[in-house]
Design brief:
Blueprint lengths: L1 H39 L2 H14 L1 E3 H15 L8 H24 E3 L10 E4 L13 H36 L2
Antiparallel strand pairs: 1-3, 2-3
Helix pairs in contact: 2-5, 3-4, 4-5
Length: 175
């Protein structure tokens, strides 16, 4: 009877060890995904991108390339986290960043004109921005203010989603 109890105890203990090893392997898998994502886009780069959009209503093509790489990275199935909470936070972040990218692709234009090369600067409706030589009427200034408000809403939402994502990574991966 004692021998049976010992054997059952060892079997249960072994299953716990295997489960713990599996959890550790899962943790390592998810840490690797985060490390690879972070190598594509540093946190400071994304925050600077958001800050520049909010303060200057402009960006350069070099600002957005790493962001595009991150979006493409997370769209690949192999780069899905095993932890569902991480996946949810990542999905929300990618959707929010994609909204920012969609907005700037439709509402930002090369400014100043005549730029050449690969690192063009784009600005939100420069012809409506008084600081860029536009907006000679109150109607144009009002319209620009509407676009600015839309930009602020989507960038602040993306920043919030990033903060949630990063907090989730910290809690789940201890990074």
């Amino acid at each position: 009877m004692v021998l049976l109890s010992v054997v059952v105890g060892l079997v249960v203990f072994r299953k716990r060890i295997i489960t713990m090893m599996s959890k550790e392997e899962m943790l390592e898998h998810d840490r690797n995904i985060f490390t690879n994502a972070a190598s594509l886009l540093a946190e400071r780069h994304l925050i600077n991108f958001f800050d520049t959009l909010l303060s200057d209503h402009s960006y350069t093509l070099s600002d957005v390339r790493p962001i595009d790489k991150l979006i493409l990275f997370y769209e690949e199935i192999q780069n899905r986290y095993l932890n569902n909470k991480l996946n949810k936070a990542t999905d929300n972040l990618v959707l929010a960043i994609d909204k920012v990218r969609s907005f700037v692709s439709l509402n930002f234009f090369v400014y100043p004109e005549g730029q050449t090369g690969e690192n063009l600067r784009l600005c939100m409706y420069p012809e409506f921005n008084i600081d860029r030589g536009g907006a000679t009427s109150k109607e144009k200034m009002r319209k620009y203010d509407e676009w600015r408000d839309q930009l602020e809403d989507i960038v602040k939402d993306a920043r919030t989603k990033y903060d949630i994502y990063r907090q989730t990574v910290k809690k789940k991966l201890f990074i």
